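How it folds
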Amino acid sequence: MVGGPRINVKYGRKDSLDSDMNRVEGKLARPNMTMDHIISIFGSAGLTVQEMVALVGSHTIGFSHCKEFASRIFNSNAEHSADFCPEGMNAKYAAELRKLCANYTKDAEMSAFNDVFTPGKFDNMYYKNLQHGYGLLESDQAIAFDNRTRPFVDLYAANETAFFDAFAKAMEKFSEQRVKTELNGDVRRRCDQYNDYRG
């Protein structure tokens, strides 16, 4: 629907019968984690560094709340905050983000697109953005500089087909992790609700 690759997902995968956000902590990468930590999280799910970089390309669509990257764009030294630019970030982009998120502490819904140029299109612009300092999240920008991840950022920035192929394969592989069987799960009629949802 947004222009990305077709992904072959197996039918009938069962979803959890309960949902507990406390069980997620430590299993999802956070914007302020080190690259070592992020690689470790993806590795514990059986994914390679290349697969991780491909999957993070999903940030080509969607948005992030300002609170997730505020510490990156606002300098704690107020005297110099107007011209502060985080390492690796385009200075004009940083200034615009500061304007956009100026009131983020009063409005928790304040957010910015992950891909400032083509936010509603699934494409390889996310990787091109990283090469030019337009990475919104600290963890995103870091993959453009880390020696383990940068070759894949460069590959996917130059070759959208390579990105699409790698993304589809990594999604298929990831969808087969921790599959629930028999009574341990339920095939939901709506993916965002339990079948016995009382709303």
In short: The two ends are 28 Å apart (CA to CA). Residues 1 and 121 are 9 Å apart (CA to CA). The first helix runs from residue 35 to 44.
